[in-house]
Specification:
By secondary structure, this protein is of the alpha+beta class. It has helices at residues 9-28, 42-75, 92-120, 232-242, 254-265, 283-286, 342-345, 347-353, 355-358, 371-381; strands at 131-138, 143-147, 152-155, 157-161, 165-172, 177-181, 185-190, 196-201, 206-212, 224-230, 322-323, 328-329.
Length: 385
C-alpha cells in the first residue's frame, strides 16, 4: 500500500509553529545593553565580528543542506513502478568531498577565531595614548574597583574615560567569577590565586551594564555592575572628588547620630575616609595577599566614603546607580528621613531593614535595626557625596 505523500502534515505544521515561536523568543533577547551585537568598543567589535562570521557560515550550510534535502525529497520521491535506486556506498569521490568540506569550513572558522583572540589578547592592548589601570575584585556578590593612579576605590560602578585604553586587573579571594561587559569586552575568568587581565576601550559616552558570567554561588545572577564612560574632563573631575575625605555632618543633627551608629555597628565591614579609615585600601593587596604583607583591613563590604555620589551615574546623568551588587537602585532622591513611608520608597532603607530577605546569603549581618536607627543611617548616607 502506497503511503500518502503528506502524511503527518499536522504534526509538521505544529513543529514549524513551535520552532518559529522559540526562534522569536531567542532573537528577542538579542538587544539591550547585555547583547554582544550592540558594541561600542574595538574589543567587543572584534568578538562580535567572529560571531557574525560563524553565523554566516552556519547559515549558508543550513540553507544549502535544507535546500538539497527538500529538492531530493521531491525529485527522487517514490513513484509506482520505479526501480530500486542506485546505491552509492563506497563512492570515494563523494566520501572525500563530504570529509574535506567540513574540514575546510572548520579551518576558516579557526583562522578567524585565532585572529580575534590575537586582537584582544592582553599583550596586544594599544601602546599609544593614555592607559588607565583599574583593579577589579570579585566579592560574593559584588564588584569592587580600585584605581592605583588615584588611590580611590568604589563599588558597583566602574568609571572610565572615553577613548582611553582601560586595563583591568582581575582578582578574587573567594570563588571563581567572570568579568564581562557585553558591549565593551568579552568574558574573562577571575580565579583565586591566578590573576588575570583584560583591556577595552569605550568609543562613546554612556552607561553600560556589566555582570558576572560564571556561577559563583546563590546570588550569582545578582552580581551586576555599571560602567560609566565619560569624557576625560568629567572623569578627572569625578576621580579628584573621590579622593576627598567624607564631609562631617552637622553636630547634633540626625546625620551626626547616624555617623555614631555607623561607627558602632558598621565600621567593621565598611570603611569611610575620615571616620574609620585614613586612606583607601588597595583590595588586591589587602584581600588577595596570601603572604599577609599588608596590615590594611580587607573590608567585607564596599567603601562608603562617597556613597551618595553613586546615586546618579555620569556627569549630570539621570540614570540611577546600583547598590547591593545590582539588586536595587540607589534611589537616594526618594529617601527622606522621617518619612513614614521610608521603607516603601527608599531602597537603602529596605536594604538596611532586611538585607537577607533582599539578597539571601550575602555578608551583610547587621542585625535588627529599629526604624529610628534606619532613619539615622539614611540621613548620614545622604551626606556622603
Amino acid at each position: 500500500m502506497r503511503m500518502p505523500l503528506f502524511r503527518g502534515t499536522k504534526q509538521r505544521m505544529l513543529l514549524f509553529v513551535a520552532g518559529a515561536v522559540l526562534s522569536s523568543l531567542l532573537f528577542s533577547a538579542c538587544g539591550g545593553s547585555t547583547s554582544i551585537l550592540n558594541t561600542d568598543g574595538p574589543v567587543a567589535e572584534s568578538e562580535s565580528f567572529i560571531f557574525w562570521v560563524i553565523l554566516a557560515i552556519a547559515g549558508v550550510i543550513f540553507v544549502g543542506v535544507e535546500a538539497m534535502l527538500i529538492y531530493s525529497s521531491w525529485r527522487f520521491r517514490e513513484r509506482p513502478g520505479m526501480p530500486a535506486p542506485r546505491q552509492l556506498h563506497g563512492n570515494t569521490t563523494l566520501e572525500f568531498a563530504w570529509t574535506a568540506a567540513p574540514a575546510v569550513v572548520l579551518l576558516i572558522v579557526l583562522v578567524f577565531t585565532i585572529r580575534g583572540l590575537w586582537q584582544v589578547a592582553p599583550e596586544n592592548r594599544p601602546t599609544t595614548g593614555k592607559t588607565e589601570v583599574v583593579e577589579a575584585i570579585g566579592h560574593q556578590w559584588w564588584w569592587e574597583f580600585y584605581y592605583p593612579s588615584y588611590n580611590i576605590t568604589t563599588a558597583d560602578t566602574l568609571h572610565v574615560p572615553v577613548g582611553e585604553t582601560i586595563q583591568v586587573k582581575l582578582y578574587s579571594n573567594n570563588v571563581i567569577h567572570s568579568f564581562w561587559i557585553p558591549a565593551l569586552t568579552g568574558k574573562t575568568d577571575v580565579i583565586p590565586g591566578h590573576n588575570n587581565s583584560r583591556w577595552f576601550i569605550a568609543d562613546k559616552a554612556g552607561v553600560y551594564e556589566g555582570l558576572c558570567a560564571e556561577f559563583c554561588g546563590l546570588q550569582h545572577a545578582n552580581m551586576r555592575f555599571n560602567v560609566v564612560a565619560e569624557d576625560s574632563t568629567s572623569f578627572d573631575t569625578w576621580a579628584i572628588s573621590q579622593q576627598q575625605a567624607a564631609t562631617a555632618p552637622t553636630s547634633g543633627s540626625m546625620a551626626a547620630a547616624g555617623q555614631k551608629l555607623f561607627t558602632a555597628q558598621c565600621s567593621t565591614c565598611h570603611g569611610i575616609i575620615g571616620v574609620d579609615s585614613k586612606a583607601f585600601v588597595d583590595p588586591s593587596q589587602a584581600c588577595d595577599n596570601p603572604n599577609g604583607t599588608t596590615k590594611d583591613p580587607c573590608y567585607v563590604g564596599p567603601n562608603l566614603t562617597h556613597f551618595a555620589s553613586r546615586a546618579t551615574q555620569g556627569n549630570g546623568s539621570q540614570q540611577v546607580g546600583l547598590i547591593a551588587g545590582g539588586v536595587l537602585e540607589n534611589n537616594l532622591a526618594q529617601c527622606t528621613p522621617g518619612d513614614p513611608n521610608l521603607l516603601q520608597n527608599c531602597n537603602v532603607a529596605k536594604w538596611l531593614h532586611d538585607p537577607q530577605g533582599i539578597k539571601p546569603g550575602n555578608d551583610m549581618n547587621i542585625g535588627a535595626l529599629s526604624t529610628d536607627d534606619i532613619n539615622k543611617l539614611v540621613a548620614y548616607l545622604k551626606t556622603l557625596n
